[in-house]
Structures are given as structure tokens and as C-alpha cells.
Amino acid sequence: MKNPFEWFHNLYYGEKNSLSAFDTKNPTSLDSLLKKIYMIGRKHVNLRMKNSLPAFNAAYYVAVCLANTEGIDESNFDDEINDAIRIIWIEDYNRHHPIYETYFPFAELMLIKWMVYAILSRQESISDEMEFFLQEFRDKLQADVTDEDLSNSGEGNELAFLLEIAEVIDDWKYRYHTDLHPHPLDPKYYSIFTWVNQVRLYTLEELEAQISFFPTQDEQMAFLCWARDAAKQAPPKESSYATSDAESLPF
Prior knowledge:
It comes from Segatella copri. This is DUF4272 domain-containing protein. By secondary structure, the protein is mainly alpha-helical. The protein has 2 domains: 4-171, no CATH class; 190-248, no CATH class. It has 12 helices and no strands. α3 (52-67) runs antiparallel to α4. The protein is globular.
């Protein structure tokens, strides 16, 4: 079975469509802490406020992936974490800007990784394995900023603000019972490319797992109805378990 990072991000944990979907107005909420972290970055490196939406979405997606990774204390997902954050940020950027962009600022990458740390470390209940992982994750985040080569560069000076974030998180007195289970994006937002590039390539085992990620029967049925309709619209192509023809789907 795939590890969580191998699923297309919106098919594992769906992004929110606006900042208003996050509970940033409540001063004791976890989202309020995340906003506080983001605003530290905005103050020091002139981040755009509209970029906080992909930052929140990427942070929660990565946190959910890590929370559902078996043997997290023995895993190294540095590349997967960086890639996932970069993909979500760039996808959002390219949806809202006329000029295609592939450059992702290192400062924002580091800031979002601290947001991931905040989500996972402020939970009321944390397993021993997660505690071990979080300590290593934090050590790496701090080492990245204090790296001698980076510290002696102009970029290193710009990133010094990241060292403030650990204290902000440590001083946050509230703890949470955040639902960190998979919860894909509502199928009504899927495009035909979600079917063509992702779902119709599933094995039967992967399809069953995908359905299980939806927490309610209504959401599972909505996904199955979407898959049926997408299969009718898409051009035929061999997949791991069937062609894209609706009649050959295993449901």
C-alpha cells in the first residue's frame, strides 16, 4: 500500500478554498497559532497575505500525512515534505496569477514546515514515535537556519526570523484534539484530469483505500458517482484493474 505522500494531495486530504474556512478569528485556536507564525514571516520577508491560504493547506496536508505514517520515528520524509509543500504552493500560485511560476521561496518553505511542526506538537495526545520524530524534525529546522554557509549569506540574514518561531510555539499554552485523519476534497471540485491522471490508474486495492478515506457514506457515494460519470467522459485507456469504461468499474 502507498505511504500517505504517494497519494495525490487532494485525494488524501482536501484543501480549503478560502482563508475564511480556517478558524483564525478564535484567539485560542490552532489556526490562530498558525496565522501568528505566518505573520512573523510576513513581517520579516514581506510575504503576501494571499499566500497564507496555500501555506495553511500545505501545512495541514503534510501534518495529516505524517500523522498517518506507520513507523514515523524510523522514517525520513524530508524530500516528500518539501515536494508536497512546493506542489501545493505552486499550484495555488498558478491558479491566481497570469504568469506561470515554478520558483518557490525557501523562506516560505521553512515557514510552512514550522507550521507543520506546530500542528503536530500542539496536540493533546502524542505518541512516543511522534515525539521522537518531532524532536528530529525540529532539530533539522533549526539546523537549516543556523547552517554556517547559509548564516554567512544574505539569505541567511533574511531567514534569522525563523529562529523566533520555536519560542512562539513553545509558549502557546493551548492543546488540541485535531482530526488528522485523511479527508479528501469534495468530489464536486474534481476535474476530468483527476480521473485520467490519478483514479483510473488505481489498483483495486488502491481504489478501496481511496473510498475508505472519505469519512461518511454520503461522501463515499459522491466519489463513486463522480468516478462513474468521469469514466463515461474520459477516452478509453487501460488502467491497473479495468478500462476507463464505466461498465467495467468494480462498483
